[in-house]
């Protein structure tokens, strides 16, 4: 019997802290050696000229989420995780959503039925709390956190999901008590409703007005409010999908005060702008880019880079939330053509996240390759209770690895994608740097764009409490 099942030989190993020429030895799905030269393996993969990095962990994706009567998502677990591994990811964390009035536990059980046996990569679940009733906060949520669902998301907008300030405070307080990390969607419900109704009354219904209806001030105000509530309850929070300078500055201000406020940004906030929503002459094609918060402008891209470079942002996630463009279920469906308000809200991106950050960050000289690994993998593992199992290349970690060709030039195109959607919002974007192999716990699941893995290769991850969720220390109320 060989010492290793697999040796990845001759590559450059990149972690969040180091870049080194080393071989990686794998046995039983785990890394057991990182050394100058390893032999004695059942299989040797030649990684000469390639970067050997921890597989991407995308801690913000939406798969098979209930549609509330609207169009269904373009990805369930099978196609969504197929797309994830094609893009160099080995773990995703989608959301088990509690519909109002439903039990949280039942929502989780139902979501497992969507996922189990279908996933090409490993997965955990965040929870979405839409109905923080006394039984949810008193019993269900603490029990689920204990069971490995150690983070949840709350919304400050959307009819079906919005929590009022009192509810936010109750949820934050509960998170503090059970050690969970709260992710917050920061956009103000009333301001958006006000704007949307005004715009519609003026006949401004094209997709572009989606962006006009939720400007940065709406995001800034909600971000500040969430931070204030987090300060009051002394609970760390993660502000997700931050789109530009105004919310970024609120977060930086809070961090400089010593509050544990973390932040995530996404490819759409460095690669798309609100002008993309104009489509051709303000027609419906702009619907392809409708997501929330909306993409902003080039000055906002600069602000996001400032936040990435200075450490305001810890994670770079896709917020993959795929809908079709064409057809009855798509962004062009008849109801969606009547107003931006009804355009399915979200864009695909799990397969292109790494390439976009590598191009715009590493190739264009804004971040180091080590920062790239931190932003796409290591920090996700640390923040969401998966470390030291996932997120690095060192003895003891799962052998979740992406082999990256730093010289490969590609143009992002729908025909390269493995997702269920019928378009990519990044069509035509030229990048240098591409994932050429994905290894999940020692198994090669993607090579040169070909999917070699199978549904069911991925397993559910019970996550630990996040060390990032530990409060600053004020006595509990
Ligand atoms: N928030 C998300 O995180 N994803 C899609 C839509 C939204 O509002
Ligand atoms: Zn959101
Ligand atoms: Zn999202």
UniProtKB/TrEMBL annotation:
The lineage of its organism: Bacteria, Pseudomonadati, Pseudomonadota, Alphaproteobacteria, Hyphomicrobiales. The keyword Protein transport does not apply. Catalyzes the stereospecific hydrolysis of the cyclic amide bond of D-hydantoin derivatives. The modification N6-carboxylysine is found at residue 153. This is D-hydantoinase. It comes from Kaistia nematophila. Residues 51-445 form the Amidohydrolase-related domain. Pfam families: Amidohydro_1. One of its GO terms (molecular function) is metal ion binding. GO terms for cellular component: cytosol. PANTHER family: COLLAPSIN RESPONSE MEDIATOR PROTEIN, HYDRANTOINASE/DIHYDROPYRIMIDINASE FAMILY MEMBER. Keywords: Hydrolase, Metal-binding, Phosphoprotein. Carbamylation allows a single lysine to coordinate two divalent metal cations. NCBIfam families: D-hydantoinase (TIGR02033), PRK13404.1 (NF009941). Its cofactor is Zn(2+). Belongs to the metallo-dependent hydrolases superfamily. Hydantoinase/dihydropyrimidinase family. The keyword Phosphoprotein applies. InterPro entries: Amidohydro-rel (IPR006680), Hydantoinase/dihydroPyrase (IPR011778), Metal-dep_hydrolase_composite (IPR011059), Metal_Hydrolase (IPR032466), Metallo-dep_Hydrolases_sf (IPR050378).
């Amino acid at each position: 019997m060989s010492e290793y099942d697999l040796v990845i030989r001759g590559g450059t190993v990149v972690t969040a802290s180091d870049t080194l020429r080393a071989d990686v030895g794998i046995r039983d799905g785990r890394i057991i050696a990182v050394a100058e030269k390893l032999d004695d393996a059942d299989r040797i993969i030649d990684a000469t000229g390639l970067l050997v990095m921890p597989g991407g962990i995308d801690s913000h994706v939406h798969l098979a989420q209930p549609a509330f009567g609207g169009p269904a998502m373009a990805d369930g677990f099978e196609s969504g995780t197929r797309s994830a591994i094609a893009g160099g990811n080995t773990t995703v964390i989608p959301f088990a959503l509690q519909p109002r009035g439903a039990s949280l536990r039942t929502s989780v059980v139902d979501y497992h039925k969507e996922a189990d046996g279908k996933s090409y990569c490993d997965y955990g679940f965040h929870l979405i709390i839409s109905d923080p009733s006394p039984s949810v906060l008193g019993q269900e949520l603490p029990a689920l956190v204990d069971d490995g669902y150690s983070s949840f998301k709350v919304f400050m907008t959307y009819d079906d999901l919005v929590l009022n300030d009192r509810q936010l405070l109750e949820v934050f307080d509960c998170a503090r008590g059970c050690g969970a990390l709260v992710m917050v969607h920061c956009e103000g419900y009333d301001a958006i409703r006000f704007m949307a109704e005004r715009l519609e009354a003026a006949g401004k219904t094209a997709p572009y007005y989606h962006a006009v209806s939720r400007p940065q001030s709406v995001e800034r105000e909600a971000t500040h409010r969430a931070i204030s509530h987090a300060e009051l309850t002394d609970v760390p929070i993660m502000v997700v999908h931050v789109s530009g300078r105004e919310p970024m500055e609120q977060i930086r201000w809070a961090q400089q005060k010593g509050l544990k406020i973390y932040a995530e940004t996404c490819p759409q906030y460095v690669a798309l702008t609100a002008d993309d929503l104009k489509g051709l002459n303000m027609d419906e094609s702009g619907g392809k880019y409708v997501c929330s918060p909306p993409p902003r402008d080039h000055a906002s891209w600069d602000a996001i880079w400032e936040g990435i470079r200075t450490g305001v942002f810890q994670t770079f996630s896709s917020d993959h939330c795929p809908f079709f463009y064409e057809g009855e279920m798509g962004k062009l469906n008849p109801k969606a053509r009547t107003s931006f308000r009804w355009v399915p809200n979200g864009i695909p991106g799990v397969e292109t996240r790494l390439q976009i950050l590598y191009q715009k960050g590493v190739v264009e000289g804004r971040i180091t390759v080590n920062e790239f690994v931190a932003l796409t993998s290591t920090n996700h593992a640390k923040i969401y209770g998966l470390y030291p199992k996932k997120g690095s290349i060192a003895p003891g970690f799962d052998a979740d690895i992406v082999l990256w060709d730093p010289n490969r030039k590609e143009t992002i195109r729908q025909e390269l994608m493995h997702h269920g959607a019928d378009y990519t919002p990044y069509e035509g974007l030229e990048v240098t740097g591409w994932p050429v192999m994905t290894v999940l716990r020692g198994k090669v699941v993607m090579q040169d764009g070909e999917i070699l893995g199978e549904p069911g290769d991925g397993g559910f991850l019970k996550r630990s409490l996040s060390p990032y969720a530990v409060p600053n220390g004020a006595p509990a109320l």
